[in-house]
Design goal:
Layout (H helix, E strand, L loop, with lengths): L1 H8 L3 H9 L5 H12 L1 H6 L6 H18 L13
Helix pairs in contact: 1-3, 2-3
């Protein structure tokens, strides 16, 4: 719940931690935060009906997909476990 609230605002300690997990440091942290805020409806509202375990995996996949679409994949160092 806290992560979705912070994503809606585009800031917060959980978003900063998630940014770090995806390898987006320094100037790319702000880009990551903006991406999460802009994608909030898709990442959180559209997935409300999905089981929490499935949603966690789908969220990981979708964040990676959005990073590629936003050409952040070569700037951040996260390697998906999928």
């Amino acid at each position: 719940m806290i992560l979705s609230e912070e994503a809606a605002q585009g800031k917060g300690e959980h978003i900063i931690a998630l940014s770090g997990m995806f390898g987006c440091q320094g100037e790319y942290q702000q880009s990551f935060e903006s991406m999460m805020k802009g994608s909030y409806p898709h990442l959180f509202l559209d997935m409300q009906e999905i089981d929490s375990y499935e949603r966690a995996h789908l969220l990981d996949y979708e964040i990676n997909r959005l990073m590629e679409l936003n050409q952040m994949g070569n700037k951040c160092t996260y390697i998906s476990s999928s």
